[in-house]
Amino acid sequence: MHHDLILETRNLGKSFRGFTAVSDVNLRVRRGSIHALIGPNGAGKTTCFNLLTKFLEPTTGTILFNGIDITRDKPAQIARRGVIRSFQISAVFPHMTVMENVRIGLQRQLGTAYQFWRSERSLDVLNDRAMELLEQVGLTEFADTQTVNLPYGRKRALEIATTLAMEPELMLLDEPTQGMGHEDVDRVTQLIKKVSLGRTILMVEHNMSVVSSIADKITVLQRGAILAEGPYAEVSKDPRVMEAYMGTVDAELQGAH
């Protein structure tokens, strides 16, 4: 019945020494959608991501991926199932080229099978796939650039390429446009839209213009609980949401951004 739901949480909660960071979150992410998690600072968005990838153990509740209970899975098991969070593999090797970084993502995805590719020819296979991914994210011209010399806005594109190398079924993007100027924000937004085809994306994002332009569904968290949910047009008019943001992103919610 729930086959259209790729990810579902039931009564998900996390407490730290009596402080409740996330409380009773019932999240339902539809397969093939772009789903955004928004909310004021301290709303529990990052804690939610940490619970979903098992960087944190939930205090209460259940996490289902494709209808399978993964609440007790270890982070590596969750990644193997195809739930990949972008920063986990952010461009880790600054002194390697952009191309080499993507190739490492591909090798990780092959895992132990990689032993068996160890011939020169196999690396050519990886090179071809790595170049395809770079083309997908618009980084072809930077293939031989040392990652440390990549312009800031393009580093996110590289992270997305290395995430794609891991063959994600569900891609978790944590603040993908943080710290970027307009031009880079637009580029990364378009990129997310493009790579979302045939995939599911759950993202934490502060920038309302990004959320309003690409998210199919938005979940607003406040103090660790779901305050509102729905398409942007609906959520942005919700008086409780406006109040929760109290002037901080009032203008953004009104679309003035």
Automatic annotation (TrEMBL):
Keywords: ATP-binding, Cell inner membrane, Cell membrane, Membrane, Nucleotide-binding, Transport. InterPro entries: AAA+_ATPase, ABC_AA/LPS_Transport, ABC_transporter-like_ATP-bd, BCA_ABC_TP_C, P-loop_NTPase. Residues 7-248 form the ABC transporter domain. One of its GO terms (cellular component) is plasma membrane. Signal peptide: none annotated. GO terms for molecular function: ATP binding; ATP hydrolysis activity. This is ABC transporter ATP-binding protein. It comes from Cupriavidus lacunae.
